Amino acid sequence: MINALADFPLHVPCNAAFIFLLxxxxxxxxxxxxxxxxxxxxxxxxKKSDEYAENVFEFxxxxxxxxxxxxxxxxxxxxxxxxLIIMPFFADVYTVYGQSALKAYNFKAAVPYLEQAIKxxxxxxxxxxxxxxxLTAIATSDGAGISDPKMLxxxxxLLKNSTNYAADKGMYNNLGxxxxxxxxxxxxxxxxxLEKNITAGNDGGLKSGSDLKINEKKAALKEAIAYFExxxxxxxxxxxxxxNIGIAYMHSSFIDEREKNIETAKKYFEKSIKYNExxxxxxxxxxxxxxxxxxxxxxxxxxxxxxxxSVEVVINENRxxxxxxxxxxxxxxxxxxxxxxxxxxxxxxxxxxxxxxxYNAAYDHQxxxxxxxxxxxxxxxxxxxxxxxRILEELKASMPPNSEIYKKASEYQQVKNSDNNGYFGx
Length: 426
Description:
Number of strands: 0
Strand content: under 5%
Structural class: mainly alpha
């Protein structure tokens, strides 16, 4: 109850002011039964109050009239307690349960709590924001794509609605995140369309890197950047917001103004790291950026910082800053990503044994078919043809024949030896 009272003014609708006013008026009238009220009446009479005031007091003192006022007073009190204290309080309780589930990355468990909180108090801005976050996370749980567009649309609308109650960087970061997911989905569709056209012999003059939906992709990134800028406006030193906008600019560098967008992305990643040296996602992103510009030494330097980081320190230090992006699983995932990306650099530079070691380390941290694919390729490039083909064949047996991994595994099985340096599926 103390928590509800502490937050009380924050979730009272504007039209509740009328109830406050009416309750105050009736409370004043109820004072008639107390000595204080009698003194006030006497004082008014002694001072010969104006005729209007005297008429009011006489009206209240008439037999039977005051009981109706008391009834109205108690009715208003009940309405006041139920709708403006009890229901908002329980809405707060459900919101806290939902928030706890979100912090534990249990998004589906959070939804019913947050739905109930909004049902009890439609003006509970925190519940609206958290429900939008949960639905967005569920709808985008399928890799880099969107598994449930309708759920994502609802989540996006809830996040937009939540900005009417309070401006928070988390709301804008999540809205920007949706823009990035739309970009990834459009990129995936473009690649699939290109592949189908070329496979069918209908390339239509399309070249590698051509974009079938460039305007839509630009719009998605522009939307994301706009929201991330608002997030930074709420908290200029937020490592999370700075990293996010850096990602958006890094993606933009693949579309147009390459050098300008790369430099802008680099600036934001550097700021993210400056304000929070334990925000390891920014190091990985900085490594990806340097890999993109073929500055491999700098890329390796950033990836190794992720590998050398302590999971416990990363989690604890970020929680001190109210950043809950990191748990044990997410930290291990970032380490796997760093190992994998170093393996990619080793492959590109022809250091196949080292590449194999880093791919194996990535697989030890996170068992993904993409990593197994590159382990098989590394063996093929080293001349371990039988071992490489065995690994790739086992991988194909576990994948649908129409999947991208299956197709790549079939291609990699044709690699003869390390002299075939020009063959990569990057």
